[in-house]
Amino acid sequence: MGGAVTAVSSNGEHSFSKPTRESITLLAGLGVEGDAHMGVTVKHRSRVAQDPTQPNLRQVHLIHEELFAEVRAAGFAVAPGELGENITTQGIDLLGLPVGTLLLIGGEAVVEVTGLRNPCPQIDGFSKGLLKEVVGRDEAGNLVRRAGVMSVVKAGGVVRPGDTIEVRLPDGPHRPLDRV
């Protein structure tokens, strides 16, 4: 099971979107070099306000490019990096992966999936009504988050568009993703 990187993005400032880059460098235990969310402890402002000593389980944000086609069908134009992700993927059911899945990216980098991104109202600030497209309810009324997954860097390396991604599932039993 695998896929590919279609875009990479980073931003040294806290802003909603991240400009796309030719490459990003992942640093083990820290995240994306030069990105505002890089660090051992939480960097997302809402998390820092709660407890700045929490471990940073949101070092690298990945979104599946297929989501862009889904929201485009609902009338929203979204390009890589615009929802704040660092790595845009193709061909992997990111949302269906269990906690602890390793993603081997390119020749060196490895990230471990920690959970789902918890989309916030800033998404509607980017494009009014988009939040309802990336957060919804299933038939049983359970909340469904579709805005990508978060991860931590286990092994550093340079990541570029076109890099392959190999998926390594953890030993069972598998734990489904929840928000982090």
Offer a quick outline of the entry.
The protein is mainly beta. The protein contains 4 helices and 13 strands. It has one domain (2-168): PK beta-barrel domain-like (M1 Pyruvate Kinase, Domain 3, Beta Barrel).
Write the SSE topology.
Elements: E1 2-9, E2 20-21, E3 24-27, E4 31-32, H1 45-50, E5 60-64, H2 66-73, E6 87-90, E7 102-105, E8 109-116, H3 122-126, H4 131-134, E9 135-137, E10 143-145, E11 149-155, E12 157-159, E13 164-168
Parallel strand pairs: 5-6
Antiparallel strand pairs: 1-2, 1-6, 1-13, 3-4, 3-12, 5-11, 7-8, 7-13, 8-11, 9-10
Q: Describe it for me?
A:
The chain is mainly beta and 180 residues long. It has one domain: PK beta-barrel domain-like (M1 Pyruvate Kinase, Domain 3, Beta Barrel), CATH 2.40.33.20. It is 13% helix and 32% strand. The protein has four helices and 13 strands. A seven-stranded mixed beta barrel has the order 1-6-5-11-8-7-13. A three-stranded antiparallel β-sheet has the order 4-3-12, with no helix packed on it. Strands 9-10 form a two-stranded antiparallel ribbon. Strand 5 (60-64), helix 2 and strand 6 (87-90) form a beta-alpha-beta unit. The longest helix is centred in the middle third of the chain and has 8 residues, at 66-73. 37% of the residues are buried. The model has no long low-confidence stretch (mean pLDDT 95).
